[in-house]
Design a protein that fits this description.
The structure is a homodimer. Chain A is an alpha+beta fold. Helices cover 21% and strands 23% of the residues of chain A. Chain A is built from five helices and nine strands; from the N terminus they run αβαββαββββββαα. Chain A has helices at 2-14, 39-42, 74-83, 161-167, 179-184, and strands spanning 34-35, 46-49, 67-72, 91-99, 103-104, 107-108, 112-123, 135-139, 151-152. Chain A has a five-stranded antiparallel sheet. The longest helix of chain A is centred in the N-terminal third of the chain and has 13 residues, at 2-14. Chains A and B meet through strand 2, strand 3, strand 6, strand 7 and helix 4 of A and strand 2, strand 3, strand 6, strand 7 and helix 4 of B.
Chain lengths: 189, 189
């Protein structure tokens, strides 16, 4: 069943988002692992915002010391515009980018350095029936290694989901920090 | 001639980037003014990076106190991947987003607030034959007013172009702060 679903997914992508049986922009294998996402694909998705909590503002020990550039797959973005809700099959990608220079001709500040990590969250009743809101969270990298792993297992519910449930504004997503999502929520209802 | 060019441009967009005579993702009128860009369109373009030079890191008087979310039109991005150069007709859009909250469950930092401005730069030998590199710079808003104007005149060369010429890494574009452009430059040569 999953193999069929994956084939449908790739067909859907090749057809440039024409209507198909699946709106999934990701592949999950029979071990419930997420397959590595291609930067050539998700960098063409819809950018939603960039939170920044650098080490030098967190006593040198930030939990998330990088720029987080966040994208949503275009089909789920279109659905969010039409309904104000994240559909089943939504995927949000978070690229981790190091803090680069702290000064430029434009002034003192924070400037993006290099890509150092890749994470994602997926809403799927089919794959994650027991996760709150059906959201699961993944990382293809670790703070110790910037190497992209070919597969990622979902984190435990406590690792990510609990905090998202408590503090995220809209269905486990921190839309309070993503101005594009706030601006487009239900805009085409 | 310009009217014809604009019609071609719109046809090209409707055809979802199929090959046409024009790759222009903008409209310039007979007074050389740039027509207001639609957020529903450019937010689907390719995101390249977000510089941040907030007031509180610049003695309360930053020249650019907002987050700058920068996008490039997808046809020019594809050309940049193939050749490593920005084609004639390139447009980069800069959305200005206010500094919002400075703390979240993830730590102390900078979080994006609301949209407060819109700027753009265009490379065109046809429209801007006398500008260095054929790049012209526009703003649809001013620091005094967040209202989006329906048209924008190009700034004088001294206002923007001179600094870009002196300090930008790649053909007047600050790619040193745009990791996506650095990573994809000539990637598909």
């Amino acid at each position: 069943m999953r193999t069929t679903s994956c084939h449908l997914m790739f067909s859907s992508m090749l057809l440039a988002f024409s209507a198909t049986a699946s709106n999934e922009n990701f592949t999950i294998n029979s071990n419930n692992e997420l397959q590595l996402l291609s930067a050539d694909e998700y960098r063409l998705w819809v950018y939603v915002g960039t939170p920044l909590t650098p080490n030098d503002m967190n006593n040198g020990k930030a939990a998330f010391p990088e720029f987080h550039n966040v994208y949503i797959d275009p089909e789920s973005f279109a659905h969010y515009e039409k309904t104000g809700e994240f559909p089943d099959g939504t995927i949000l990608v978070k690229e981790l980018v190091s803090v680069g220079p702290k000064a430029a001709v434009s002034g003192q500040g924070y400037f993006q350095g290099e890509f150092i990590g890749l994470e994602a969250t997926i809403k799927s009743k089919n794959y994650f029936p027991n996760e709150p809101g059906h959201w699961a969270y993944f990382s293809f990298t670790s703070p110790e290694s910037r190497k992209l792993n070919p597969m990622a297992k979902a984190f435990s519910t406590e690792s990510c989901n609990t905090c998202h449930a408590a503090a995220a504004q809209d269905d486990f997503v921190f839309t309070q920090y993503y101005p594009v999502l706030r601006d487009h929520k239900g805009k085409k209802k």
